[in-house]
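Summary: Need help interpreting a holo structure output

Steps to reproduce:
1. Submit the protein chain below together with the SMILES for pyrroloquinoline quinone.
2. Request a joint structure prediction with the ligand placed.
3. Inspect the structure token block that comes back.

Expected: a single structure record containing both the chain and the bound molecule.
Actual: see attached output.

Input attached:
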Amino acid sequence: MTGLLTQEQLEDALREVGATRYHHLHPFQLRLQSGACSRGEVEAWALNRYLYQACIPQKDAIILARMDEAPLRREWRQRIIDHDGEREGEGGIAKWLKLTDDLGLDRETVMSGRLALPATKFAVNAYLSFVRDRSLLEAIASSLTELFSPMVIATRVSGMLANYDYVTKDTLAYFTARPVQAKRDSDFALDYVKTHARTPEQQRAVIGALEFKCSMLWAMLDALEHAYLYAKPWPDAFQASERGERQAAE
Ligand SMILES: O=C(O)c1cc(C(=O)O)c2c(n1)C(=O)C(=O)c1cc(C(=O)O)[nH]c1-2
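--- attached output ---
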């Protein structure tokens, strides 16, 4: 790619990144939605993904602090409210903790992150560093995976409800609000990126930012798949068999 793309071509290129690299294609995601995951794997997924959820408002606060214009900040701050809520017990992070609670995981342990896989921590930190160190345009473009999240969320929720009897609609309440929020957020970010990426270099940079973000989401699922299916978890990480053994012993 050398020349300047039209806005439509840029959007097509971004959508192509999602079609080929988003985590809806990852084997662990397919396993999760098909009912093939053990209870321990579902727990490991929820526990690790908590760290991603928890980092989202932090990364949005970094982006917000880099915005010079009040209208932009007004738009972006809603994302932080969506995740943190207006008060204790509200917002996306609280809903994610409802999921880990329902799975029987200890809240304090989940929130401490101490049983998360090393790769999950590295991935989340890479996202925070990316939005801090790259241009504001790239930081905004890295949120564009949300263009694709409504599709993967719908498949995941229906698959999990159909296949795991310990998962209810209430357990997955986190996902109810997300598709609408993700559409609103990604419509705004896509429009911003299309109008602000005005040179071939900037266009390459925003496509690269979306590829980076897809690779970060992919790496988190690679780590789960490797640790809980093919190898064994890092010694200090969540041991998927522990709960089953404990239950069996009870
Ligand atoms: O369930 C998912 O597969 C999924 C994916 C993504 C994403 O693509 O980054 C997000 C979310 N969920 C999500 O719930 C969320 O709040 C969110 C915020 C962001 C972001 O980068 O700003 N991505 C995502």
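--- end attachment ---

Reviewer comment: The mean pLDDT is 95. The chain has one domain: 7-238.
Status: needs-info
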